[in-house]
Amino acid sequence: MLLSVELAVAAPYARRAADHLAHAQPAWFLLAVAAEMVSMAAFARLQSLALSAGGLRVKLRAAVSVVFAGNALSATLPGGSLVSITYRTRRMRAWGASVPLIGFTHAVTGVLSTIALIVLTGVGRTLAGDSAQLVRASIQVSVACAVTVAALALVQHTNVLRRPVSALLRVWQRLRRRKDGHTSADGLLEELAVMQPPGRFWLLGLGAALINWVGDLVCVLAVCHAVGPAPASGKVLLAYVAAMTAASALPLLPAGLGPLDAALVLTLHHGGMPMAAATAADLLYRTLNPALIGVAGWSVLLVQRRGRSRRGRLRPQGPYRVADPIHERGVEHGHLEDVAG
After folding, report:
1. Residue 324 above 80 pLDDT?
2. Which residues in 98-113 are b (16+ Cβ under 10 Å) and which e?
3. Is residue 228 within 8 Å of 280, Cβ to Cβ?
4. Could you read off the pLDDT of 193-225 as tens digits, one per residue?
5. CA torsion, ordered 232, 237, 240, 241, to nearest 10 deg
6. Vertex 258, ends 254 and 259: CA angle to 5°?
7. Per-residue confidence at 318, pLDDT binned at 50, 70, 90?
8. Which residues contact 88 (CB under 8 A, 6 or more apart)?
9. pLDDT-based confidence at 285, cuts 50/70/90?
10. 3-state secondary structure of 179
11. Which has the higher per-residue pLDDT, 149 or 234?
12. In angstroms, rounded to a whole number, what is the distance separating the alpha carbons of residues 165 and 177?
């Protein structure tokens, strides 16, 4: 329904944008593809760094495959962001990650991605002449860092957290009709207390998060150049930040469908780009993200499903599961081979 409404509203502009798309410059489009691949690889690197903080090493190619598949789920299904988190959680469990490590990974990637976007916003506003925005961005980054440091310090004091965590887990175990809540709480707190990432981890993680956003930004800048005269880089940066902010306001919409496109097109047009060219840039960007990324991600999911089915036919039938040492080694070292998740 939402897609039909958006297509009906955008149809007149899309017809005018068709001429720009027909004369799009291939070199700029190839740069956009390369930038988007770098962006995806950087996010995969960020996740693998977070997992390594708990002692789990995952090869980059395995992490990249999960990022593509997760993005495909997020971009093509209603409420896809929740489905994507569930999928990534199951894959991390298949690699051998504990529940505390998975929670730490989700939290850290979210925090560092948010800080990186705040930094980009401050840079964009500063380039546009709003120097006060840089001060606001600095304050926001400081608050995010302070909250993160406080949370990491709190988990070191297991005695303080044991009672509330035990109470919460008792409720959860009661709902699931299990009675190992206290042991689970102790194990959870002990594993969390062990996680003390060094300063180098935060620098590398923030760098990966920045590359993730900058790669996507370069993709938008490249498609703008591909279809016509692009605005100044600072104005494209503001348009990009506005689009990402609009998409995050409605996270249950697949790929920010609607709000992201409207914000990107209108902000590019406000920055001096003709409406038809701005619409063409948005359509070209969408052929990459989520279209081509979605195709790649669903291909990964299909390969994983076939791998699961093949191993299911090879496993002996019965109440007991026989471990495959070779397969387990593949999971330990982060190979792309799938495991039942």
Report:
1. no
2. bebbbebbbebbebbb
3. yes
4. 667 788 899 999 999 999 999 999 999 999 999
5. -150
6. 100
7. very low
8. 47, 66, 70, 106
9. very high
10. coil
11. 234
12. 18
Among 40-44, 124-128, 287-291, top mean pLDDT goes to 40-44
- Residue 49 one-letter amino acid: L
Quickly tell me which residue has 């959870």 as its tokens.
188
For residue 317, give both structure tokens: 């039938």
Check: CB of residue 88 under 8 Å from CB of residue 297: no
Q: Among the residues of the chain, which ranges form H helices?
A: 2-22, 26-52, 60-76, 80-95, 99-127, 132-154, 158-175, 181-194, 199-227, 233-249, 259-270, 275-286, 293-314, 325-332
Beta carbons of 294 and 69 less than 8 angstroms apart: no
N-term to C-term CA, the chain: 32
Please give the pLDDT value at position 2. Answer: 47
Nearest to 255 by CA among 41, 43, 65, 73: 73
Q: 338 φ, ψ to 5°? A: -85, 155
pTM of structure: 0.78
Contact indicator for 285, 278 with CB cutoff of 8 Å: no
Residue 35 has pLDDT above 90, yes or no: yes
Query: How wide is the angle at C-alpha 214 spanned by C-alphas 289 and 335, nearest 5°?
Result: 65
